[in-house]
Each structure stands twice: as structure tokens, then as C-alpha cells.
Amino acid sequence: MREAIILAGGKGTRLNSVICDLPKPMAPVDGRPFLEFILDRLIQFNFNSVILSVGFKADKIISYFGDKYFDMPVKYMIERSPLGTGGAIKNCLNEISVDSAVVLNGDTYSDLNYDEMLDLNAKNRELVIGAIKVKDVNRYGALEVKSGNLIKFIEKGATGPGIINAGCYVINKNEFSNVLSEDNFSFEEDYLKKIIKNREIKVFISQGKFIDIGIPDDYFLAQNYLKGD
Length: 229
Description:
This protein is an alpha/beta fold.
């Protein structure tokens, strides 16, 4: 049994001039909503169901996809007020029926191998970050990794080749069991950067395809980058 969570609740402010009133995951890429490319990859890896965490213009996503994408059931968690990435993940983890789930950002696509990421989590029972090797880390910030473990986050501004967080994780259902009332928090800034000090975080590194449509330049790049996928 495989379940995934996709964070699809953001406003996509930087893309407003390009996609108008659409939620960012619905931005058209090669004539299809960007979110379809992410869902197609889940089907390719035999996922049994997906939960979409939706907020801004949630009705546009729900009315388009309904309760099933091909044969894969689709469930929705609606953010009545902004939860941040951490709050949204915490909310969705309460709804999964498996020990851990693959968690994806709704505005990024990568060629990460979910089979191998899930195997790494099953072997170590530790949180896994999916990472990509890129030619220039400047826009994203970078990860310092040693022996497959995350050592530290390197802030944006560094240049040159490196390893970046691809916005993909394998997270245990009970990951936030000790997080009490923090309903609105950033998964990376408020959570990962704190827990890295006293526990292992595994990093799965790939050299495959990666695109983040968060800014217009990369959104336009995605039109050809994902063409035919």
C-alpha cells in the first residue's frame, strides 16, 4: 500500500502575472495542468491513493480532478486558513493509513525514484529528503550531505554545482507526534532546521530531471522541459 501527499495550497504570487487566478499547481504546462505530471509519476510508481492539501482556489483543483485520477483515488484536505508547509503535512499525515508517505510540493517535478526512497525509509525508519544534483544552486540554496545524511542547509546565494532539496520527502506518520499547537509552520525553516541538530535525516540523491515552476522564467522553461512526459 502506497500513499502520497501533495502540497497544492499555495497562491503562487510570483506567477500571478502569468497564470492570473489559477492556483499554481493548475498552471498549464504543454496544455495540461502541472499537477497532472506529478500525479502521472505517482501512477507510474503504483501509488494506491493521494491526498491533496489545497487552499487557494481549492475549488478549481477539486472540480478538475474530482475523487479519482485514472484509477487512483484522490482525497482533499482543505486549508481553511494558511497552515504553512509543516502544518499542511501534519494535517495530512493524520489521514494516511500507512506507516509513511511520500510528500511532494505541488509546484516541483523531479525524476526521483520513489521505490528507492521508500526502501531507504523502511530500512532506517528515518525521514528521507529527495535531492537533486544541479549545475548551479544559486536560486535554491543547497544541502551539505555526508555518508547519506544531511549535515546542514546552505542558504541561497551560494553558486556553482551542488545538491538541492527537490521538495520531495518520505515522512513517517508519527513524525509530528511531539509537535503540539504549531498549526502554521514551515516544514524546512521551522522544523527540519531544528531537528537536524539531534537526529539523522537521510538524503536520497538523484541526477534526474527537475523543474520548479515557482517563477515565470522556470515556468516558461517547463513548457518544453516536460513536453511529452
